[in-house]
Amino acid sequence: MLKNNGLFRKEVFESRKNRFVGNVIVSVPITFKMLALIFGLMGLALLIFIFSGEFTKKVRVSGQIMPNDGFVKIYSTRTSIVKDIYVKENDFVKVGQNLLHINNSFFLEDNKDLYDSISYESNQRIELFSKEIAKEKTIYENKKQNSIKELDYINKEISNANQLFYTTKYKLSVANDVYARYKIAHRNNAASLDEVQIKESQTLDLKNQLKQIESELDSLKENLRNKKFEILSLEQEHLKHLTQLKREGSEINQEKIQSQSNSDQILKSPIDGKISIINIEKGQTIELNKILMSIVPTNTKLVCFLYVPSNAIGFIKPNTEVSIRYFAFPYQKFGLAKAKVLSISETPIPYQDLNSLGLIPMQGITSNEPVYIIKASLDKQTITAYGEEVNLKVGMLLEADIKLEKRKIYEWILEPLYTVTGNI
């Protein structure tokens, strides 16, 4: 309806008041208003959600359960046959405890065991050397006893010669006195010249005897020194020969031990721990460098080893939360496990080279992209299954979601624009 605002005459408005069809009135239903209000609120809520809401970016990686302190692997040192296994999985073992008995037998053309034949020959040679040593000792003892007897005889000869020397020396002293008195008596015409000459001759004889005795004493003493040196040399020669025989016998015995170790070998535990995995059975033939069993150190905790590609490592840091799904326990039924990042390796390693570290790469993955190894601590060392706590085991494979960063939803929506702008 037009209003009179001075632009039209009054009659115009009066003529428009009386119409047969009446005035058109636009009526808006209440439902439309409600819908408009609802959609408006929804739009407002969406805007609030976009600008205030956040989402966490995650990366999914593979991994496995491993001991925190690592574990010890027992390898075969040659191709052998397992004769006996002394332990079972989950058994606790001590250092030096027997783990298994392996045998490495080879047979000759006459069906004789090679190592048994070598051992028999070694025993024969050891017995021969034992007889040689006994013979050497007997010969030495006989020579030594003979030399000692000769030494005793020389000592007695020296003792007798000394007695004779002192006796003769005394006689010479007496003879000199008598000879001196006879010379005085001869000057006094109390003794004849013949008597003086006889006494002089006796004195000279005693002097000659004394010199002979001295010469014999010197000779006996020289013999004594030579005999002592001979006994000492005999002992040294005996020890030298005996040492040589013992050395040769020791070498033969070592060959025997080596032969026995090549034939039969008892593998012992190098640490205190728990048997984790046994990869062999009794009677099985094992190849060189085969992993026979693994031992987890005592009192070590299990952790997750996660293999993270280089394009996802940037935002991971210690204490980052990790959600874990064990392949052995479907998460749809048993839920997720929780963990936190403990440490991150400094350098990556090609994925297919994880075996060289004793780790187990996921089956079916052919990519050799380098990965970083992340160690994560578990909230629990068990998982609840059917109301019971089941212990986790070393080597269990898993998948994990690692939380990387939180971002606003609008940032995620506008990320393509940021990318284009950044490229420009």
Automatic annotation (TrEMBL):
Name residues in a coiled coil.
Answer: 196-237
The record describes its membrane topology as:
Single-pass membrane protein
Instruction: Kindly give the InterPro entries that the UniProt entry links to this protein.
Output: Beta-barrel_AprE, MFP, Secretion_HlyD_CS
Task: Tell me which residues make up the AprE-like beta-barrel domain.
Answer: 305-404
Task: Identify the GO cellular component terms for this protein.
Answer: membrane
Q: Which Pfam families match?
A: Beta-barrel_AprE (PF26002)
Location in or out of the cell: Membrane
Q: Where are its TM segments located? A: 20-51
Q: What are the BP-aspect GO terms?
A: protein secretion
Q: Signal sequence span per UniProt?
A: none
> Which keywords accompany this UniProt record?
Coiled coil, Membrane, Transmembrane, Transmembrane helix, Transport
Q: Which family does it belong to?
A: Belongs to the membrane fusion protein (MFP) (TC 8.A.1) family.
Q: What is this protein called?
A: HlyD secretion family protein
